[in-house]
Amino acid sequence: MTHPKETWWVALIEVGVIINLVMVAFAYTTWLERKVLGRMQRRFGPNRAGPFGLLQPIADLVKLIRKESFFPASAHEIPYILAPILSTFTALAAFAVIPWGKGWTVHGYYIPGVVSNLPISLILIFALGSIGIYGYIVGGWASDSKYAILGSMRTCAQLVSYEVSLALSVLGVVLMGQSLNLVDIVDKQQTTVWFFIPQFVGLCVFLLGGIAETSRPPFDLPEADTELVAGYHTEYSGMRWGLFQMAEYINMIVLSSLAVTLFFGGWHFPWVPSLDKFGPIWFCLKLAILVNAFIWLRASQPRLRYDQLMRFGWKILLPAATINALVTALLVVWVK
Amino acid sequence: MFDDWLPFAIYGLFSLVIPATMIGASFALATRPKRVVKARTIPFESGVSTGPPVKQRFTVSFYLTAMLFVLFDIEIVFLYPLAVILHELAWFGFLEFLVFILILLVAYVYIWRKGALEWR
């Protein structure tokens, strides 16, 4: 894991560019979701603001910022305001360790293909995801409303249950990649085979657990509007509500990028090594396909019941992930 | 070591400042209501709201789920380091892995038979 030294101002510029790109990706994921959902239901989706409704995310932002920042009289003010900031912070920060390119040398300055190349990047992503749960539970508790508290308890129970399967499903990849560093795992896939072939069960568990972890339909029980009004953000409005939505979408983007990194060879192009220098393009393409699959699921699947959800997580996904890890371990030792 | 973490620290700072700025902007730019009536500020409920909810007990299922989470998350914490060096430990490592999973399996079967995995 030796790499040329990175100058601090190169890191600063890179961080600035990447975090803005993540924000743009988030804004246009909301646009894409509304557009695709609309088309799947034989509607047009947003089409007034700009060509094809492309300015819609900007209009949304202006509307949310201008909206009255209302909060209930009984709310605990400081945690109520800090909760959405915490959720968004953990969602955004997790993207820092995702590799999106090979790294380039421009005029003698080395620009790495990942914001921060850490030896424990995989654990860091899961840790940040766990801290993000605090945002939901604190937000729900601080609003001091029946639906918000119920919603936050449900969210917490669901996220905590699926996190176990999610973390276990990746164990097979760690066994094959022999590292917790995402850059190493991507390089390993280039020299052997993309891990979605040997780790197909792992991929299925990872995606199912991931949908539940980002509370996307059909596992969107935290926001089951027929039962809970809006779940933990019932009492939120304006930009604070917007930040919770932002955290949810960015979590989806981070999770899709993690799936691309762990199972689909990251920024590599299959078979043709000379095309690897366009790494970010292939990364974005794979990411877009996965995000579209998430949206497609939302358009086509009905929501589960809460007991079905818990049973599915604990009785099917968890054993499947454990057996997958065990078989992978056996094969790793055997082949060696 | 420190050089690896510096970009992450910068990135973390940025990702903290962005949502804080957005909240700040919404304080500065938001429209204010002309007058605040009491009905606006009581928590939402489907019918007539009587104010904040009375502190009540939660179903034990939530606590049970939390305890199960701790149990299995510890499992994962132990397995990650093992997974990284398993190819060096070879069969010894695999046997240890197997013993660990078997002990866990006993607990898992017990939990299952007790019905703790069913949501009630």
From TrEMBL, chain A:
It is found in: Membrane. The keyword Transcription does not apply. GO terms for cellular component: membrane. The keyword Transmembrane helix applies. One of its GO terms (biological process) is aerobic respiration. The chain crosses the membrane at residues 7-29, 78-98, 118-138, 159-180, 192-212, 249-267, 279-297, 317-335. Keywords: Membrane, Transmembrane, Transmembrane helix. Pfam families: NADHdh. Its main location: membrane. One of its GO terms (molecular function) is NADH dehydrogenase activity. InterPro entries: NADH_UbQ_OxRdtase_su1/FPO (IPR001694). It is a multi-pass membrane protein. PANTHER family: NADH DEHYDROGENASE SUBUNIT 1 (PTHR11432), NADH-UBIQUINONE OXIDOREDUCTASE CHAIN 1 (PTHR11432:SF3). This is Unannotated protein. It comes from freshwater metagenome.
TrEMBL record, chain B:
The keyword NAD applies. One of its GO terms (cellular component) is NADH dehydrogenase complex. Coiled coil: none annotated. The chain crosses the membrane at residues 6-30, 62-83, 89-111. It is found in: Membrane. Keywords: Cell membrane, Membrane, NAD, Quinone, Translocase, Transmembrane, Transmembrane helix, Transport. It is a multi-pass membrane protein. GO terms for molecular function: NADH dehydrogenase (ubiquinone) activity; oxidoreductase activity, acting on NAD(P)H; quinone binding. Its main location: membrane. InterPro entries: NAD(P)H_OxRDtase_bac/plastid (IPR023043), NADH_UbQ/plastoQ_OxRdtase_su3 (IPR000440), NDAH_ubi_oxred_su3_sf (IPR038430). Belongs to the complex I subunit 3 family. HAMAP family: NDH1_NuoA. This is Unannotated protein. It comes from freshwater metagenome.
